[in-house]
UniProtKB/TrEMBL annotation:
Origin superkingdom: Eukaryota
Listed GO MF terms: copper ion binding
Record-given protein name: Superoxide dismutase copper/zinc binding domain-containing protein
Domain Superoxide dismutase copper/zinc binding: 3-129
GO biological process terms held by the UniProt record: superoxide metabolic process
InterPro entries the record matches: SOD-like_Cu/Zn_dom_sf, SOD_Cu/Zn_/chaperone, SOD_Cu/Zn_BS, SOD_Cu_Zn_dom
One family name in Pfam for this protein: Sod_Cu
Length: 132
């Protein structure tokens, strides 16, 4: 869920059935047509920034970090996106949120695809961002 306030946007998620850290990203397309999730396209990145993690310098607007809180086989995520010019709530309506198979390594140069995906792996859980 994306909630707008005067200080930014809060992203919250509850994912059932996982108990290990996973990357979470906004992807460009809200297309769920491909079973493997590839139709969601690349990470949402209107500014053309390198991949990274929130709070660690430049990163894609769609780089939301890592889901790390678990309870009874469910994962819980909350992140506050401070107001910034490259993230406007209306710009992400119709795009997708993807939870990947692995955690996000940010822009670690020792990881394959570190500068594009954070080596986060396959797309396991996918939804389209809509209007509640």
């Amino acid at each position: 869920m994306f909630t707008k306030s005067s200080t930014g946007i809060t992203v919250t998620a509850e994912v059932h059935g996982i108990s290990t850290p996973r990357a979470i990203h906004i992807h460009t397309n809200g297309d769920l047509g491909a079973l493997d999730g590839t139709s969601t396209g690349p990470h949402y990145n209107p500014e053309g920034n390198p991949h990274g993690l929130p709070g660690q310098g430049l990163h894609h607007a769609g780089d939301l970090g890592i889901i790390e809180d678990f309870l009874d086989g469910n994962a819980y995520y909350i992140y506050k996106i401070r107001s910034k010019p490259d993230f406007v709530l209306s710009d992400v309506i119709g795009r997708s949120v993807v939870v990947h198979e692995n955690l996000d390594h940010g822009n670690d140069p020792t990881c394959s695809n570190g500068n594009t995906t954070g080596a986060s792996g396959k797309r396991h859980y996918i939804c389209v961002i809509g209007i509640p």
